[in-house]
Amino acid sequence: NMARVLGVLLALCALAHAAVLPARGTRRTDGLLTVAEAFNDNGIDDGAIYHPGWFTEAPMGAPTTAQGYFLRDEAASLGAVCLDGTPSAYYHRAGTGSGANKWYIHQQGGGWCESLDSCYGRAQTDLGSSKAYPATASLDGGYFDVNASINPMMYNWNMVFMRYCDGNSFSGNNATTTPYRNLTLHFRGKIILDAQINSLLHQRGLASATDVVVSGCSAGGLATFLHCDHWATSIKAAAAGAKVVCMPDSGFFLDFEGPPKYHSGMTWAFYQQNSSSGVNSACIAGNPQEPSRCMFAQHTAPFVQTPMFPLQSAYDSWQVANDLGNKDVAVVNQWGKNLTALVETQLLQHSQHGIFLDSCYHHCGMWNSIRIDGALSSTALMEWYSKGSSGLPNKGFYNQNKPYVCAACCKP
Question: What is the model's pTM?
């Protein structure tokens, strides 16, 4: 059972805790870096390695250009503000042709702040402040690509990029503020989320949507698990006939307390930010004695009703370094087996869900770089979206199922 597996992992960690972990990585072609330092003094924060190469300012009129929208009125009236008190923001590129009423919505990732020191530091960066956000952005590559051969289902859809500046996967709902050093910190992620959903519905045209894919990678992938049903309910209240699904990328973070103390850090963030009203409400109702469990995808997944199709590595490189905290081959393989078992019992117990579960050592990205059951991620998504899990030979479970280390798994 799960407890036994985690016990084995803890024992293995105790034996192999001195294993050398990967140092800060080098820039990758998909715009992300490889695994950063496994530990830092300010809590677990992968913001330092989150560099989306597709997010650069672009001239108006270019096919990849998205317009930025800064929610200043909502900041003033609702308190929908970043960690440092600046307004939240998102970027939107209008759909064209057959994609005019279809939407891809991406929640940015970038780790979490898990101590006041960490939140203070983050509040002085783009992951905690909108001060330096550009007026426009270029959304291109991967899920945002305008090339139909690369992004066959969504190439001409409306594209939304929600900037992440709250430090806890858009879940905080703390009405108070926290003075710390020379700043006043705000924990308002859920308020930001609701303000942006409302703006998209009533100002950008989301209320006329026929098709919506809600996504995000890393902390944004976790946000997709946490808020999938909330997105669906909000959209369908305005567009009753809309088809809404969720595609979290690299967001199935396991609830585990290894040397990096991921469980402790996320639990602190949950209570500090008052996230009990900002995560999946059914999960909260199902965990009255320990509501902080609902900050973790593995505990949230059984309660999600909206169809989901995660993109996930069994050997997620960020999790190996910053959740497990051990790169020993045997330990990582056991981790992958545990993650796969949890996917099957916690997610795939509901037949509406599927998953693209690869064996490549990576975190986020890798769009169309991995092939499972003859399909790349873009074609697997399209197959699942059009036929549903029940209509596929693999029942929506695209499982590469190879042992770690598997370099060939990272190639199409």
Answer: 0.89
